[in-house]
Design goal:
- The complex is a heterodimer of chains A (431) and B (355).
- Chain A has helices spanning 37-67, 72-100, 104-123, 128-155, 162-190, 195-216, 231-238, 241-255, 260-270, 278-303, 305-325, 330-347, 350-358, 364-393, 395-430, and strands spanning 2-4, 11-15, 20-24, 34-36.
- Chain A is mostly helical.
- Chain A folds into two domains: 37-216, Growth Hormone, Chain: A (Up-down Bundle); 231-430, Growth Hormone, Chain: A (Up-down Bundle), CATH 1.20.1250.20.
- A two-stranded antiparallel sheet of chain A has the order 1-4. A two-stranded antiparallel sheet of chain A has the order 2-3.
- In chain A, strand 2 (11-15) and strand 3 form a beta hairpin.
- In chain A, helix 8 (241-255) packs antiparallel against helix 13 and helix 11 (305-325) packs antiparallel against helix 13.
- Chain B is mainly beta and 355 residues long.
- In chain B, strand 6 (123-129) and strand 7 (135-140) form a beta hairpin.
- The longest helix of chain B is centred in the N-terminal third of the chain and has 37 residues, at 6-42.
- Chain B has a six-stranded mixed beta sheet, with no helix packed on it. Chain B has a four-stranded antiparallel beta sheet with strand order 3-2-1-26. Chain B has a four-stranded antiparallel beta sheet with strand order 4-5-6-7, with no helix packed on it.
- Chain B is globular and about 85 Å long.
- Classes of the chains: A mainly alpha (431), B mainly beta (355).
- The interface between A and B is large, with 72 and 62 residues.
Chain lengths: 431, 355
């Protein structure tokens, strides 16, 4: 089930007969883009799941510290689990999905794990050990579902519109990230100590998301030969020179990216705006990402994904340069945040689209899993490095490193990487 | 695209609609009941406005009690006054308490200035009261109440909150500590805007967190905790120059003794998440760990120059249960119960000139 996509605005309609959401957009009549029902439904799944997990994530520190009387150290341990457990699971689930030759069951398992954890938070007495275990399982679930879910998105789109498909999905996803903390905030404001209410609502959203996935989403057809790829095949696919270039640049550019929290604190200090405005920074950047995800995805499909991906890093370099060299006022901060959202729009969904175009379908899951693991581990390394630089010589050094690193890495890999676009251009011309 | 045959699709759609209905119904009922419980369990928070005076069942008894040396605290006796500001005479802490209807999670009183961190109109809010128990100022808090103190002259108050917004951002634990004018309620500064110094050089890091202010005799001087990079530093601050200077490491949630010679604090133990009460002698640099191994998480209050008070909270119980305990500062005796079903003690040691 697919419809025309008009670029300026995306309208989501509920098709009562099939209960499918239908996305539409339009630009020049010549450039019709199809967004399949599967992608929109997967977007709904991610939106509901993000509402669910961000609701809990946003109150977790306060809940653990105050309600369960955790110490900051215990909290740090739980938080560390939260951050890092999922990275490895991405790779493993991608491999499993490829070997089973089916992505939906693996993705479903990942979503179900997280839903089960929300139930656990609601009914288990909150002692530190059980809570830490629940959080770890929740994050493992996130790691498990990401690669097969992205493979499903990839399989549900034509090669020429893949970045748009990812863009639509990421727009839904980001909407959940914005809404979740807001719901939690409102609950805590209106119901004193309403942590259980938050867990209950989070469980409800997770179940609905799981329901959409299990009952409404079709497992997209995989026209790759129905063989079980051996681990060696997958390994060989990952060492394919094209994919290797993507892997390297994806990982390295995540080392030099400054964490959101660092960047926002820095912008806030440079602009001397009130500390209370910090949560707003998150919202503005997310809304920018939300608004740009689809148009930037379309742009990537038109002019080349690698070009847009590199362009995204030019945008983030511009943010660093502005923060480093220009005096900042409120308008400057807003510009930076909009550019930062553009950076996310040009990278978050575009990178898996690049990977999808560069590998054969039978190793899609493991390739997406590999790049997911590489980028998230790189981000972890990057945030530790930035924190160290900041503590050592102040924010200026961290910013300079981020700026120089981004430009040097993007610049030095660009020739190699742009060949992917060139090859794709040639293929599309042939068709 | 694989298409399911029509009946199967229809069945699945029906199932999905049924699931939606079930989830919405169950969660709706749950939220509705939880909201009801939350109101009945903690009784309605009495809304105060600026200018209204705090009410107590026996106003005259309250006034005469507050003229004598006394202890103000958060009453946690089950019943209609659960969670409210209450008083006992200093010479009979175990006796009958006088509860008010002002709900406070944390409170402190000094030289007639009372700071209460509670809620108002559904938001976490701070109250400043004068010595006639009149609300002079209400301000919104940007997080969950954690610590409250007032300076010895009552002109400055300080509070710490845990911020949900910041932690949403960093996924970490974050505190915000603010100094306000005890009279006008105007914000003096957020401690994070102060210039920090360590070993004679400016000191900065992205993960700075301040908490647990305690005031000295000099109205401009205070001590607090600066948490950064896994350390909990004792800092000495100066309000006039807007500076804090690192004085020691490993001293968390300080409390300056009335004679200013010692600092009581909570000391991290080998077990994660456990602190023990301890006393740091500023003259000799000697630390004395006090014999109480229960789970302490409170800013200690000095009863006098020899004895300390702190709350011990029962873990994982809702609504919160807690009692105030007393221990000798020299560590020679085990703790003894001071006020049952209570938290957040503030000691007023001298007679008060109130009408």
């Amino acid at each position: 089930m697919a419809c025309r996509l008009l670029p300026a605005k995306v309208v989501y309609q509920l098709d009562v007969a099939s209960l499918g959401h239908v996305a539409r957009a339009a630009s020049q009549p010549s450039a019709r883009v199809r967004v399949s029902r599967t992608i929109v439904l997967l977007g709904c799944v991610s939106c509901l799941t993000d509402i669910s997990s961000e609701m809990v994530a946003s109150v977790l520190p306060v809940y653990l510290l105050l309600q369960l009387q955790f110490s900051p150290l215990q909290f740090g341990i739980v938080d560390g689990l939260y951050q890092s457990v999922s990275a490895i699971a991405r790779l493993a689930s991608g491999v499993v999905a490829d070997r089973w030759h089916r992505h939906k069951p693996v993705a479903t398992f990942g979503y179900a794990m997280s839903a089960l954890c929300k139930l656990g938070m609601l009914v288990l007495p909150g002692n530190p050990t059980s809570f830490a275990a629940l959080v770890a399982i929740d994050r493992t679930g996130k790691g498990v579902r990401t690669a097969p879910r992205d493979a499903m998105i990839s399989l549900s789109t034509q090669e020429g519109e893949r970045a748009t498909g990812f863009g639509v999905h990421r727009a839904f996803d980001t909407a959940g990230v914005v809404v979740g903390p807001l719901v939690a905030f409102l609950v805590l404001r209106s119901i004193a100590d309403g942590f259980n209410v938050i867990f209950a609502l989070s469980l409800a959203a997770a179940l609905l998301g799981l329901g959409v996935l299990m009952l409404l989403v079709d497992d997209p057809p995989n026209d790759a030969p129905a063989t079980t790829p051996s681990l060696r095949t997958m390994l060989r696919a990952c060492t394919d020179p094209q994919l290797r270039a993507v892997l390297w640049i994806g990982a390295l550019l995540n080392v030099t990216v400054m964490g959101d929290a660092f960047l926002y604190v820095l912008l806030q200090r440079r602009a001397a705006s009130v500390i209370e405005s910090l949560p707003l920074f998150y919202v503005v950047a997310s809304l920018s990402f939300l608004a740009l995800a689809v148009p930037v995805g379309r742009l990537a499909d038109r002019i080349g994904r690698v070009r847009v991906y590199l362009g995204g890093h030019v945008a983030v370099a511009a943010v660093y340069a502005i923060a480093l060299f220009l005096p900042l006022n409120t308008a400057g901060v807003v510009v930076c945040l909009l550019l930062y959202g553009a950076y996310y729009a040009a990278t978050d969904g575009v990178l898996p689209a690049i990977v999808s175009g560069a590998v054969s379908r039978d190793v899609l899951g493991s390739s997406l899993g590999t790049i997911g693991t590489a980028t998230s581990l790189a981000r972890l390394v990057g945030s530790i490095l930035m924190g160290a630089l900041w503590s050592w010589k102040g924010p200026g050094l961290a910013l300079s490193f981020a700026l120089a690193g981004t430009l040097v890495i993007a610049g030095s890999f660009s020739r190699n990487l742009l060949r992917i676009d060139a090859r794709r251009d040639a293929t599309l011309r042939l068709q | 695209m694989t298409s399911m045959d029509a009946p199967e699709r229809r069945n699945k759609n029906r199932l999905f609609i049924a699931l939606c209905a079930a989830v919405l119904a169950v969660s709706g009922v749950y939220v509705y009941r939880a909201a009801g419980r939350s109101v009945s369990a903690r009784q309605r928070v009495v809304e105060y406005r600026v200018g209204s005076a705090v009410r107590a069942a026996q106003r005259s008894a309250l006034t005469s009690l507050r003229k004598q040396p006394h202890v103000a605290f958060q009453n946690l006796e089950p019943g209609p006054s659960y969670g409210t500001l209450a008083y006992v005479p200093l010479d009979a802490p175990g006796g009958a308490r006088q509860a008010t209807d002002l709900s406070c999670r944390r409170l402190y009183v000094s030289a007639g200035t009372l700071i209460c961190l509670g809620q108002s109109e559904g938001f976490y809010s701070g109250y400043l009261l004068d010595d006639s128990m009149e609300v002079r100022h209400i301000f919104r808090l940007l997080g969950v109440p954690s610590r409250a103190r007032a300076s010895r002259d009552g002109r400055t108050a300080a509070y710490t909150v845990f911020t949900a917004a910041d932690s949403y951002m960093t996924r970490g634990f974050s505190t915000r500590t603010v100094l306000v004018d005890g009279g006008s309620g105007a914000r003096i500064a957020d401690l994070e805007s102060f210039q920090a110094w360590k070993d004679g050089a400016p000191f900065q890091a992205v993960d700075f967190n301040y908490w647990g202010v305690t005031f000295g005799r000099d109205p401009s001087t205070f001590f607090a905790t600066l948490g950064t990079g896994g350390h909990t530093y004792l800092v000495e601050g100066d309000i006039e120059t807007r500076r804090v200077t690192v004085r020691a490491d490993g001293i968390e949630c300080p409390s300056l003794s009335p004679d200013e010679t010692r600092i009581a604090f909570k000391k991290k133990t080998e077990t994660p998440g456990r602190w023990q009460p301890a006393v740091f002698d500023r003259r000799t640099g000697v630390e004395t760990v006090l014999p109480d191994t229960r789970r302490l998480d409170d800013q200690i209050e000095w009863l006098d120059d020899e004895r300390l008070l702190y709350a011990i909270v029962e873990v994982g119980v809702a609504p919160v249960r807690s009692s105030i305990w007393m221990i000798r500062a020299d560590g020679t005796q085990p703790p003894s119960l001071f006020i049952a079903d209570a938290a957040s003690p503030a000691v007023v040691r001298t007679e008060q000139p109130i009408n």
